[in-house]
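Record type: monomer structure entry
Structure origin: computed from sequence
Chain ID: A
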Amino acid sequence: MMPLLENIARCEKSWKHVGKLYHRSFFLFITKVCPQANGCWHWLGHVRKRGYGQFQSSGKHIGAHVYSYETFIGKVPFGYEIDHLCRNPRCVNPNHLEAVTHRVNILRGTNPPSDNSRKTHCKNGHALIGDNLVLDQLKKGSRLCRTCRNEWQRNCWARRRALAT
């Protein structure tokens, strides 16, 4: 892993289209980037708790990936955030970054809400489509299997009746 600064002469042609090659912030940014074999540009600078790079530009602290996106692609639209298509939070390669809504960013991730949104069947094998799909109003966005929910309710009422007698 060789910092990009040592390779700047070789890479200069690919950076020229930006027009900010000799801008101080851009130069500092480039010194903290190291290209990887998988195409990611690994951030060598300061990293926050969750693994995202942090960069200071014009006296403001911003995400290194946000700086990269705004430098190479353009402004992040209002209400959008930057998603790492490569799932690597330290990557600042603009080709691996995309501006998306928060909802899309969450659903693309690897977390319980995104995992559940991709499920096509419940744990008992019932399809989560059509009349068998129930959207839980208490837990917004939660999806339930109607067959399993009805069975659970019948069992619950049977236990209550057994306790009452």
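Annotation 1: The chain has two domains: 4-108, 120-164.
Annotation 2: The longest strand covers residues 80-84.
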